[in-house]
Amino acid sequence: MSSTFTRRRLLAGAAGAAGLLIVGGCGRDGGAAVAPTSDAVRRAEATRQAAGGRLVTARLTPRPVTLDLGGPTVRTWAYGDNLPGPLLRARAGDRLRVDLINQLPVDTTVHWHGVALRNDMDGVPGITQDAIAAGTTFRYEFTVPHPGTYFYHPHVGVQLDRGLYGVLVVDDPDEPGRYDAEWILVLDDWVDGTGRTPDQVLDSLTGSGMDMGDMHGMDMEGAQSQLLGGAGDVTYPHYLANGRLPSAPASFRGKPGQRVRLRVVNAGSDTAFRVALGGHRLTVTHTDGFPVEPRQTDALLIAMGERVDVELTLGDGVFPLVATAEGKSGFARAVVRTAAGEVPPLSQQPAELGGQVLLANQLRAADGVRLASKKVDRTLDLALGGSMMPYRWTINGKTFPDTEPLTVEQGERVRLRIANQTMMFHPMHVHGHTFGIADGGARKDTVIVRAMELLTVDLDAENPGQWAAHCHNIYHAERGMMVTLSYRQP
Ligand code: C2O
Ligand code: CU
């Protein structure tokens, strides 16, 4: 088996370098693109390998499955028989080796969302590797540099909107762990196997600018949120918490008075969620893996691709943990239980959902992770545009792969000015880097840009290669809202 991997790796490496010609070549800024297979990438990886890092191995087998959502079953694609897929866990500095065995009928890849990893393991076909063909395997191997809550998913088409996602937790060897229990809540908007596949949803959006699910009810304006503006294009029949429908919720058990760390991941494709736990206040401690100045809130808003960690002290009873689909109708739900008693009725929504709602954009970076102040070497503008008829989403007027690469050089402080010129929000995600929101805001890799908002973020170009940057609404990304952050040779 290992010889198959080796051969595959060699092939992927060779083709990956050739594929670069598509995105690279010589840009307007002169220098040649720094290839995913370059020495610069290998050198950057070498500096990440902390002494004593362990090797953590796993295997992922995406394949067609039938999943039980808690009553209804659906035919879909997933990383095994459970949703979310296997929890992967490592310590910062460890090397992760994951063999991907593609049992899907189509190409796939895995992207390690939020991880500042070596470029050639980033999982973006056409940019960092060849797609992994049906029936073949690929070995991902990289060092995980930073602790935090991450997730993994394919980077091919709209496969993320199937059951193809799982969580990667990177533990901090130096963290005191001031909590008694740790829970993980993965939210998702679900359509696959209910009469339409995500590919059919994309086709109907592309054909008519409308999601055919809209025919049953929702007005032509689409989803609207007071906090975000336009809140999505797709009408989903279900919302899931840890793979379960609200009527058959997963339950988290603990004891009254215990401190819990709850890691929340939005693995949805077109839905932001407003999350609250009945009878509790939440203290937000991290977003996208990185610590923030702790902030208390009643509820939090989490967009596609974002992660938020909260701490809370458990009350005595049985409490609904609810995530409403922001600007849409419907919700996901789990249950928190510290005492005997009935599961709360579906109609019992936490009052906290109508209280104070925190967006990660409002958080401040914790002391140790705030971007050092530094002169900006390069400012890059990203104008976000789009239309429903035809259904297309643009960066600086173009759709990927025709978007003009954002070129940077190693060592630069880079400022991204993201101007959302649409009436819809876009959660913008940059691969391989964690930027800082302007003026000491949180360190993040995915950030909400509200309708018509101008948002400024800074990053240090210290992870060489070719990196995707895109909207994490998977339908927007697939219809053009993607660009490369392209390192160039000086
Ligand atoms: Cu989770 Cu390119 O994305
Ligand atoms: Cu978008």
Notes on the structure:
- With 490 residues, the chain is mostly beta strands.
- The protein has a six-stranded mixed sheet with strand order 13-10-15-20-17-18, with no helix packed on it.
- A hairpin with a 4-residue loop joins strand 2 and strand 3.
- Copper (II) ion binds next to loops.
Notable characteristics:
490 residues, mainly beta, six-stranded mixed sheet, 4 helices, 34 strands, 39% strand, disordered N terminus, binds CU-O-CU linkage, binds copper (II) ion
What's the shape?
globular
Main sheet strand line-up: 13-10-15-20-17-18
SSE class: mainly beta
Total number of β-strand segments?
A: 34
Q: Which residues sit in consecutive blocks of at least 5 with pLDDT less than 50?
A: 1-27, 216-220
Rg is 21 Å
Main pleated sheet: 6 strands, mixed
**What would the average pLDDT be, to the nearest integer?**
92
Helices, by number, come to 4
Task: Briefly say what this structure is.
The protein is mainly β. The protein has helices spanning 2-23, 39-48, 198-208, 474-478; strands spanning 55-60, 63-68, 73-78, 88-91, 95-101, 111-113, 137-143, 148-153, 166-171, 181-190, 223-225, 229-232, 238-241, 251-253, 259-266, 273-277, 282-287, 290-297, 299-302, 307-313, 318-325, 331-337, 357-359, 378-387, 392-395, 406-409, 413-420, 426-430, 435-437, 443-444, 446-449, 454-460, 466-471, 482-488. A hairpin with a 4-residue loop joins strand 24 and strand 25 (392-395).
